[in-house]
Amino acid sequence: MPNLSTRWLKKSPWVYHVGTGGCNNCDIEILDCLTPRFDVERFGIKLVVSPRHADVLLVSGPVAYHIKPRLQEVYKQVPKPCVVACIGACACSMGIFKDAYSVAGPVDKVIKEIDPNAIFVYVPGCPPKPETMIMALVKALQKI
Amino acid sequence: MKIQEFIEILKSKSKFPFEVQQHSEKRVYIRIARENLKDIAIVIFKEMNAKFSIASGVHIREGFEVLYHFTFDKDKFICTVRTLAPHDDPKLDSLVSIIPGATWIEREIYDILGVQFLGHPNLKRLVKAEFLGEKEFPFRKDFNIKKFKEDHGLAPKISFIQPVEQTVKKSK
Amino acid sequence: MRSIIPIGPFHPLQDEPENFLLTVEGETVVDIDVNIGYIHKGIELLAQQKTYDQTVFLVERICGICSITHTVCFCNAVEDLLKVEIPERAKYIRTILGEIERIHSHLLWMGLAGHFIGYNTVFMWTWKYREPILDMMEYLTGNRQSCGMLKVGGVRRNLEDSRFPALLKTLSEMEPKIKMLAEAVQDDPVLKARLEGVGVLTKKDAIDYCVVGPTARASGVDIDVRRDDPYAAYPYLDWNVIVLNGGDVYSKFLVRVLEVLEAIKILRQAVKQIPKGDFLLEIKEIPPGEGIGRYEAPRGEDIHYVRSNGTNFPERLKVRAPSFINIPSFTASCIGQQIADVTITLAAVDPCYSCTERMISARDLSGNKKYSQKDLLEISHQKTLEISRNLARPADLPKLKKYL
Question: Cβ separation of C64 and A26 shorter than 8 Å?
């Protein structure tokens, strides 16, 4: 019998959005998913205001040096099991900011420092289209 | 008012020497000594009603060059005032008492280049207070990005070359 | 009694991390502290390691919403250094892309502003109307935002003439909806009571703090780079600069609505007049020198300063995004406001933190009363509800409640 918490997770994942120093593009596309054209709330995907309520963390942007401890703090507050979705090329691999001097690393590297078993889903693109993000979430939930 | 007229008015109003370099019909650059910075700001900003756009700091061979860009919106040109703070004494007068909009940019130039602004009410580092050292200024030419990243644990120390060299030596 | 309210850094109000520190006495704000510097990535330093062609792609990623802004501004700066004129068709293409961007950026802000004061209907409406514009961007250039169209000396790719009729059709479908929105804003008594006289930035403060864009134009300062330092095809087109004298949030809202209508007008003319021919001027080398580029972004004047030393890499690139100079004016507009009005006042300048490359840090002072951002939003919504209760007749109340 599957774990009770993962069963809930499959029904209606609640997402929390963390911007870690991206260029705003992915953040706007995430908000776009909520508006009438895409309307992810009809699938039960809801943007929540606190990480403590979230099942999925949407992280966009390369992790800037100052935001690194805060991202780790947010990750600690999310109830486990949870999925971390790296939205956009910068979050997946730092993209164009690879050589910048105050960037700490891609999202997966930063989060694996505190939790080696974290589950990741990567959404490449600059910016990824809202359809891609919805598909990525669906795939992530199948993974659990 | 065209650039020529502007220069003449400036000459009649100011009592200090300056050097003019006209780039095009829309851009003019003025070089002044750093002692006269406040005077020229009063003339251009208060008396001639220019808009202060931004200042940019550059590290050049002679020292730290700071450029103040003033825009004349009705007359369609930009006047850039450039001044130099030498290496051994990187200090300039703060313009905040004349132009409140210059607060942040002076803090930023202090942050990235280490030029001190005398008389600034709140001269803290704007962007990177907690992670750069006292004497680390990223926009100085002697700033080494690779070394910086390794020191702060932002990039792992990778040594590709050493093992290769060792194997070559062994084969010899 | 004085207390301090930290806001942020991660909160649902805006999509970027940011943080404000308000000192309040009772309900009134007496001081606002702005400590910044968190999402700093060092783009200006990174540009010194990239060639001019690569830098165009880098400055595109300063801000996603103003991707055309920064690229055109950088190209303007390099072209000023070179003293070259770009082909006519390239000028028109830059104008078309820039105005499409202005429409979607203003609609985005209006939606967020509606959300802050508790009108989620406005949020959903405007974002729904924004979608066709983004579709048009994708149809014309290949991507919804960050299209990679610009290059020093012109544009990288041509726009096909056969695709313009679809753009015109979208615009004519959009125009009545925007007008409806403008009328709704002007007629609605609740919205007017909620926004009028809030967060006033006087003309003197606007000049002293050197604010730019809609923030300045709503305070009666008549500046617009498109007219004052013409670039692209704006000198050949007929359009107006919108200037209002209120200085409050209501004027800022209205300036943006009217600018969207003005942008539609510019787009129609540009599509009609666009000439055929070359769209890229080949540039072989960049001599030593310096150049300044200006651009009227949706949020205000953008300035890039480029210095070249004759090599393939820029020696120095300085980017001044409009928010950098608009944000310090919070000090002037927020003090004396009620807490409920602060969220909308802060949002009224349309702050963009990726552009500014920095953000604001919170200090935790023990023993002080704290509100979370959620509480602040609730306070803001309650005030709207109260005003609507006082204004509306009892019969209208259930109808109004539906929208709140």
Answer: yes
